[in-house]
Amino acid sequence: MDTLPYTITHYTDENGLPQNSVKFIAPDDEGFLWLATENGLVRFEGDRFRNFNSSSRISYIYSNAGRNKLFARTDKREAIRVENGRTVKFTRNPNTEDDYEFLIYNDTAFVYPVNSLPNVFTDVIHPDHFLIPVDAYDYYMIGMDSIRFIRKKQEQYRFKYPIASPWKFFTLGDSLYQLTENGDVTFFDKDKPVNVIVRGDILHYPAYRSRKKHIQLYWNFVAEQLFFYLDERCYFVEALPDGSLGTTLVVEDFDFTQQSILSIYYTSFNKRVYLGSRSKGLFVFTWKQFHPFRTGEGKTDVYYAQAPFGDDSIVTPQGIVFDAHGKYSSLPLFNGVKGKYDNYSMQVDKEGNIWGKADSNIYKMNADCSEILWSRELHDVVKQLYADNAGRLWIGTHRSGLYYLSTKDENPVPLLYSAAIKDASYMQLENADTMWAGTEKGLFRIQISKNRIDTIAGLEEAYVRSVYIPRKDEVWITTYGNGFYLHHQKRLTPLPLDKLKYLAFAHCIIGDAYGYLWITTNKGLFKASRKDLLAYADWKQTLVYYFYYGKSQGFFTNEFNGGCQPCALTLRNGDISLPSLDGIVRFSPGTLNHELPVRKLFLDEVELDGYSLPAGDTISLPNNFLQFKLHISTPFFGDNYNTQIFYSLDGEGKDVWLPVESNRTISFSSMPSGTYRLRIRKINGFGANNFIEKTIVFKVALAWFETAWFRILVLGLLALSIVAYLRWRITSIQYKTHLLETRVSDRTRELKQALEYLQASENKLRKQTLMQQRLIAAITHDIKTPMKFLMLLSNNRNTGDKSAKAVYDALYKMYHLVENLIQYMKTHIKGERVVLEAVDLHDLLEEKAGIFRPIAAAREVEIFNNTEPGSKVMVNRQLLAVVMHNLLDNAVKYTTQGSIRMEAVHQGNEVCIKFIDTGIGMQPVLADWVNQYNATDTQVHNGIGLLIVIELLLLINGRLNVTANKDTGTTVSVILDINNSN
Question: Residue 762 burial by CB count (10 A; 0-12/13-18/19+): exposed, middle or buried?
Fold first, then answer.
């Protein structure tokens, strides 16, 4: 079937057609085709069918006076009108020719209207007259031996004419014709029969003259079309201005008799033929616009690079030459090339010589490829060749970089231009000094004279397949997997892809003389407006229309080839030649049609939860629906890939356009109440804002809880609730107020009693404090002073009186004990703030050592002060002195024949004052009590001296730590926190 000049699509009840009898085919003004079947009237929109009046058999289809409306006649004598892409059934049942606009029929006169040939009733009906229509009110009445012409019920003329068969008459326009028994055509100039000359394609059929008496008529009155069928060839017939009939071959090699063809419709723009069969459905013939060239030798028909050859031929690296009509021949020179050409590079230099490559070899051939003029093997694999118009051949290698040589030299020497550009995949000059080089890892712009190479940002990892530069500052780039781009005005713009993203793998891009760019992919050929793409890159246009050509247009395969240079050819006559995986696709861009989807959008059906609703521009919906569907349609008989329909729902506050599903259905699930505006937009083709938009408003009813009465009820209940709540709240507050008053009264009485108790306690405490202060004063005056006097009297160390010395020691201890007790009591009773001053620790320790050295000497104990002079700390001197005195006193008391060392050291934010003795040591229980002192502990160990020390240390942010020495004795450490001293 690939050799046929057209593609055939066969529709039956297995792929969409409701029933397999297609007796009439008629177009309407909206662009739909209507089919008369045994299962109702069927609308065909190009890729789907919609059945109307499926309960009726359709006898035939006809049009009204202006031919702007279609009508159908059912077997139940009903008239169906086609309007706006839908049907309306008439209840009136006219039965005379007075109502011809609605029905051509007259039972009483036995008149049979003939508005198509062949006719299904040829062998079963035998009326007295046959009515051959001209329009709604004009017709010819064919009798057994005469012809009459009737206009608005008035006979205009009649004449005698022998009639062998009434099924050979037809009209074109307002003229009556007859196909005679010998195959000639007669035109009736009123009552004068005139032989008609037949011209056109039918004359090219050699057997026409000998077999023309076998011509069959296919007449479609509604479409005003006539066809001749002869020997499996169908010709479209049209009246020419000179009165002759022209014929155009539209179908060949198709047996109408075997397929029971009854009706034909033809569209000349796209050369598409629709054939309706009595029992085998609908056949659609579309003439192919492309006719690829190939040899038919399998793998040799996989093509890449090409070069012009001769006047209008092309040559491939396989040595195959195709002329303009696809005839091919082979060049013997290519068979002797070492390693064979690798198909990926073929360049023609300024002198017309052809350059090719094979692995690491480069070849130069003369223009007719009869002789190899020069060859050279490089030390690296040659990836690509490019001959510029400045007489240079650029050579891209795998590892070494980019080379060039002079094409006009007889023995050229390749010179290294840059080692930075490796694996060049495509090269193209923009001007005499600027070249663009694509690689498998990006795109580079080369300023040749300056040896400057710029990397194009945004394509660093892209595999560049081709570069097309039609003019300065306009660089089109295709990539493998990343789409295609435009570099324009110093900016790289990624261009939009098609709906299935075939253009992501774009092999090649090339322009024609009509303002279009042609882009090859793995999935077919695309055509785009250069103006649209430039406008998109300049932010002047938001969408771009791509027209798609697929295999149905004549390609042997949809997979085109790239990775070669050149990836496409523009020949001198404007033809474009493209390589594919199966053949060379050569075509003239100006002769191709692009069938654009320019017809209107129609809302066919509205479906709500499985039930149909009336279709209109405004639709009312209940609130609690589950699914809402809109079925839309548009008549388009080309490749469905060229139809682009989108929708946007404005009621959601969005302006997002979503593609309509391939089944042309838009679905919504349950939606909140409100008014929504659905905009459906279909792109008509090339150009800015070239689209048709249909707006449908649908209103979702309010839910029961959103209605006015419900809101009034809720407001009423809310008001009552508020009143009830306020009353309850007031009652509750009054109760709580009374309860609070009672509690306040009780609490006031309790507080008054507590205040009286506190006042009594305060008076008692004041008296106690006064008594303690007087006691301290009495002790100071009556005990401390006499004791100091007695201590001075007994301090006679020179007498050697041991009794006096013992008295002195006892008095000395008692004096200092009293002194410490007084300081401790003053601190706690007065509660005064501790005053800090800079205390020299060496001097303070030396002062205390001087007091205890006589007593220590008597016990054969030496006291050492190891503290550095000038070692100062901010502390209350009086309280620290009491602590030092007590600790040194304890050390002397429990040490005999030994030593006591005092030392003060700074350790970060702390000062540690140690008393290290060699005495009997401290009991472990007492040491643990000191180290783990808790103010709540009421147990006192061994007197109140240590307790006084610990509590005084707390006042100056100090603490006490006791450790047993390794040999003998105890180390008592006073640790002061100098940061937190208060």
Answer: exposed
Instruction: Identify the bridge partners of residue 452 per DSSP, sorted by sequence position.
Output: 447
Give the chain's count of helices (H) and strands (E). 9, 70
Query: Which strands, in side-by-side order, build the sheet including 442-447?
Result: 424-431, 434-439, 442-447, 452-455
Please give the backbone phi and psi of residue 933, each rounded to the nearest 5 degrees, phi first: -60, 135
Q: What is the pLDDT of residues 942-970, one digit of tens each?
A: 556 777 788 888 888 888 999 988 888 99
Asked if residues 226 and 237 have their Cβ atoms less than 8 Å apart, the reply is yes
In DSSP terms, 898 is beta-bridged to 861
The residue with tokens 């190479």 is 453
Paired with 33 in beta bridges are 27, 44
Contacts of 27 (CB under 8 A, 6+ apart): 33, 34, 223, 265
User: In this predicted structure, what is the pLDDT of residue 17?
Assistant: 95
- Check whether 796 has a pLDDT greater than 80: no
CA distances from 61 to 45, 64, 228, 354 (A): 17, 10, 21, 63
Torsion angle of alpha carbons 812, 818, 819, 824, nearest 10°?
150
Cα(786)–Cα(861) distance, rounded to whole angstroms? 30
Burial class (CB within 10 angstroms; exposed 0-12, middle 13-18, buried 19+) of 258? exposed
- HSE toward the beta carbon, residue 366, CA cutoff 13 A: 6
Residue 479: CA count within 13 A, CB half-sphere = 22
Distances (CA, A) of 74 to 22, 62, 570: 14, 12, 57
Measured CA angle at 220 (ends 214, 221), to 5 deg: 120
Higher pLDDT, 278 or 706: 278
Residue type, 166: P
Q: What confidence tens digit (pLDDT) does each residue in 181-208 have?
A: 999 999 999 989 999 999 999 999 999 9
- Reported residue count of the chain is 982
Answer whether 543's CB lies under 8 Å from 683's CB: yes
With b for 16 or more beta-carbon neighbours within 10 A and e for fewer, the 707-720 pattern comes to eeeeeeeeeeeeee
Least confident of 93-97, 151-155, 165-169, 600-604: 93-97
Give the integer Cα–Cα distance in Å for 129 and 106: 10
Per residue in 425-471, pLDDT tens?
999 999 999 999 999 999 999 999 999 999 999 999 999 999 999 99
Q: Strand order in 33-37's β-sheet? A: 24-27, 33-37, 40-44, 49-52
What would the DSSP string read from start to end of 209-268?
A: HHHGGG-EEEEETTTTEEEEEETTEEEEEEE-TTS-EEEEEEEES--TTTTTEEEEEEET
- Whether the bond between 118 and the residue before it is cis, its omega within 30 degrees of 0, is yes
> Long-range contacts: 787-793, Cβ < 8 Å, 24+?
787/811, 787/814, 787/815, 787/818, 788/815, 791/815
Longest dimension (CA), the chain: 189
Distant-in-sequence, close-in-space partners of 623: CB < 8 Å, separation ≥ 6: 673, 700, 701, 702, 703, 704, 706
- Concatenating the DSSP letter of every residue in 658-706 gives EEPPTT-EEEEE---SEEEEEEEEEE-SSSTT-EEEEEEEEEEPPPGGG
Full strand arrangement of the beta sheet holding 583-587: 569-570, 576-580, 583-587
> How far apart, in Å, are the Cα atoms of 903 and each of 746, 841, 849, 856, 959?
63, 9, 12, 18, 16
Q: Are 120 and 278 in contact (CB under 8 A)?
A: yes
Round the CA-based radius of gyration of the chain to a whole number and report it: 57
131: nearest Cα among 152, 151, 153, 115: 115
Tokens of 179: 């196909």
Distance from C-alpha of 968 to C-alpha of 479, rounded to nearest angstrom: 92
Q: Report the alpha-carbon distance of residue 931 to residue 954 in Å, rounded.
A: 13
